[in-house]
Amino acid sequence: MNLLLSKQAIVIKKARHVSFCIEARRFANIPGEKKSTAEEISALLKHKNWNFLLESSEIPQKLSPDVVHSVLDRNKLVVNPKRLLDFFDWSNHNLGVTQHIDSFSILALALCNSNNFTPANRVFDEMLQRGYAVTDILSSLVKCFKECDSFSSKPVAFELLIDAYRNKRMLNEAVSAFLGFKNEGFSPSVLCCNTLLNELLKGNKMELFWKVYEGMLEGEMSLDVYTYTNVINAYCKVGNVKDAKRLLRVMEEKGCSPNLVTYNVVIRGLCGTGTVDEALELKESMEAKGLVPDIYTYSTLIDGFCKKKRPREAKVILVEMTDRNLVPSAYTCGVLINALCNSGDLCQAILVLEKMIAAGVRPNAVIYTPIIKGYVEDGKFDEAKEIVQDMWQKGILPDILCYNTIITGLCKVGKIDEAKMCLVEMERRKLRPNSYTFGAFISWCREAGNMQVAEQYFWEMLDRGVAPNYATFTSIIDGYCKYGNIAQAFSVLNRMLEIGRLPNVQLYGILINALAKNGKLPDARNVLSELYNKGLVPDVFTYTSLISGFCKQGNSEEAFLLLDEMCQKGVRPSIVTYNALIGGLCKSGDLSRAREVFDGISGKGLAPNAVTYSTIIDGYSKAGDLIEAFRLSDEMPSQGVQPDAFVYNALLHGCCRAGETEKALSLFHEMVEKRIASTLTFNTLIDGLCKLGRMSEALELVKGMSDRHPPDHVTFTILIDYCCKNGIMKEAEDLFQQMQERKLIPTIVTYTSLIQGYHRLGDKLKVFSLFEEMVARGIEPDEVVYSSMVDALYREGNLHKAFSLWNELLDKGLLKGHVSETLVQSWCEKGEISALLASLNEIGEQGFVPGIAMCSTLAQGLDKAGYSEKLPMALETMVKFSWISNSMTSTDLITRCQMDGHTESVSNPPKQSAFEVALQA
């Protein structure tokens, strides 16, 4: 600070010295003609009609800045300063060039010396308008002041310059002027300094504020209550209540008594930092000193206690404010009413409203809104609507927010008809619905799954000229994504772009998440690129959605690339991100890499949660490493994570897969005792018992399932599948009947088990009957069912229908190559190859023309079944009926089959049990 002042002083002194030298040289060398002109003007200025005399002479042609300055300098103590100002204005009109800066300074000082402060202010304003630098003005004013001893008793001119800068909001210059004058030994009055401090405080120019304050202290100025109050206010403004309280004590120690404003500033500062109890104590201390709190004091305390969610204490303060006859403002009452409503004390809020009205304070719609909201949150919609009607009767106009509060509440609880009636009344009252009004209806439709009606509200909103807000766009786009209509979601997005609304990160995240969940990862990647192009940075939710999508598809490499990408963008992965990676790696069988990720979590500043542990434990359990799975589950409590139902179920499943029945039963009983067993738990153990052939125990377990965890479709599917595989079809039929009696809908897995079971027994009628029933229920058959149907038709002798269905399924990609090959191999069993070749000839004669895919699969199937020597005969039939060209060989067909992907080039994955397939379904 001292260095700054020293530098500024040097600049001012140098500027003053240079200016003084220049002026001295100029006046020493003023030509005789200019000197005589100045003397002539000085003589004429003594006459009342000086203006006329000057205009009638040749003086206007002889005017120059030097002449004007000489006239002013000669007459500053002789001629009335107002006349000098008039002459200065006259010369400006006739001169046409810029006056000397010292002319302004002499004139301003002369006017101040004679207490003509208003015209002096005008002179300073003109100096500022002419753009003189603050250092030049300082130098000139100080020089002219010190050259005339008669000016020494009137340093008020310096204050006027500071005020001139301050009034024009040139606060930097005002502070520079203050510091410059102080360094020259001039001290502006405390009033001038206080006014400047106050202006700096209002303008939030805190650095300049402290410079002025420190300058006052260095100048040993006598600070008054206004100075201290300004400084205390400055401390409070930045939350430094500690120094504010210290200064309050200092001013009292120095005999400067704080006034009500001072205390109010500190009370406001304390309330602003949340120390409301100390603020209340200060108010009491103030009263003890004879100062009476005013409306501002009470309002500040009420607002402070309300913000701390202590409305009851706030109400006590309000009561005290009224037993003193101080009428609270509508704002103060509104703050208290809002706080009471937010704390659930609606009765007290209404009581405050009644007292407010009784005190003559007129409430407005803003005050009524929290009460309306309180009734709505309590489900008291009639009371909320009565409040609105009461407002109309009292001439208080409810606003759109009052109606939106009721409409939103009604929509949330599904009372859509009442919400529509509110909308009708609102429009009848000439209140125009806004985006929040329509947003409430759209949200209800989305939650109800009725996106068609949601879209109708959306387009009605646009037709009425109401621009949807981000919440509305997000709601409808999220709804379409939630119900799988991604194309429509993008249609709404395009509409959003058309009206000039750019999607935010949240919206892009919703779209990316929907695409990733639906397996459309290339599209999700494209949306991510668009997000980058808009200059946006995806959030952790968006990245995690994509990573999870790639993990579910087994593409862990792409998932890790995304992980690196998000880290490079400065987005910190969450535990959910790592959980997705671990899950994907476990699913793809890469357990060692999954463990690497798991072990590295703590180094990322994160802690594994229950999902993390259950995922990795499930991975080890499915891999058959029960020792590590149980070790991890034992480790969980020491890491602050308790094993939950998911962990226990994963361990139970692992034990059942490994045939560790006794360990599985022990886990099961432990889960029942801990009351964490679920239907899934029972199903897991039932599946394990069935695999071991302990059907009777499994059935007993089913009988023990209670209302808390009743059997579901998976339970019955497990049992039905076991019966079908073991040829116990009567028991399977009974279980199927029980399932339907319990209103449980059979799934594709249930029907597949039954169809395969009857197919093995050769009961074609049951196979066809079950197939028709399944289709009638709207269940899409899988390739196992389709292959069973083709095989049943073939063995029944309905060759045309069998081969037609088989050909159609191959063309549509509904049958994989290895399934078709299995069909061919089964038809070739027990030396039935001749029958198969005869069948081909028969369907050819019936006019059936299969596609190249079926011909290729036939050739591949015969080759794999060990009948390659019969391939020429099959080929001859295909050529005979023009199914293939006569130039095509059996090798061509087999190669074609492999190239088209009709056969699998890798080993088949381990076959899943009906329980695992049912879970996925």
TrEMBL record:
Entry's Pfam families? PPR (PF01535), PPR_1 (PF12854), PPR_2 (PF13041), PPR_3 (PF13812)
Q: Which InterPro entries match?
A: PPR/CCM1_RNA-binding, PPR_rpt, TPR-like_helical_dom_sf
Gene3D superfamilies per UniProt: Tetratricopeptide repeat domain (1.25.40.10)
Q: What keywords does the record list, in alphabetical order?
A: Repeat
Q: Where does the record place its PPR repeats?
A: 100-134, 224-258, 259-293, 294-328, 329-363, 364-398, 399-433, 434-468, 469-503, 504-538, 539-573, 574-608, 609-643, 644-678, 712-746, 747-781, 782-816
This protein's name: Pentatricopeptide repeat-containing protein, mitochondrial
